[in-house]
Design brief:
This protein is α/β, with parallel strands linked by helices. It has helices at residues 16-19, 35-38, 62-68, 91-99, 120-126, 156-168, 174-187, 190-201; strands spanning 4-6, 26-28, 52-54, 75-77, 103-106, 130-134, 151-153. Helix 5 (120-126) packs across helix 7. The chain is globular and about 50 Å long. The two termini are 15 Å apart.
Length: 203
Amino acid sequence: ATHLISPYTWWVEELPALRRTGVERWRQFPWWVPDPIAVGREPRTALRAEVAVVGALDPMYDLRVSAASHPLVTDVLEVSAYARSATRYGADEYFDLLAERDAVIVAFSSSERLRVPIAKYVEVPAVGALLIGARAHHLEQMGFVSGVNCLLFEDHDEFEQAVRRYLASPESFVEIAARGLELVAERHTTTTRLTALRDLLQI
């Protein structure tokens, strides 16, 4: 293998088994969405004062579980491709359900090692919803900037502050949601990943 690609590369230097493969060969390759999900989608002109949590509620996802039980959260869509306790949907149905939400909290674990840039970080803005996300590795590298195209929080206290800001004035976040959609359409689609792969392999 000439290159090793993964959405999760920050721990390569920490794990001996991965380090032995050659740190210099690892490339970050973030999650993406099919082009039709984001490309050509019209940005939203209004957002409702509602906040959803999307994802499996496994105990290891402590930030997500905590957010889902918070009284400010108005909706929980327990969906996962892996967790047995969550509902599995086909891709079209999943994105349709996601598009019904105007603001979505994306969180995983409070553990520094598990600050994972999961697929939902690109899936939420891909449908035009506002991403309210826990800080994760590689997000800035992926183009996510808090207050510009998403809202990011560090811990439980910042989570509550971010949600309260949004619920108090959803109209103030319409442009931020629109810029999140624009970011995904430009940088996080199947086409952009295939282009990056061709460039990497020089083919």
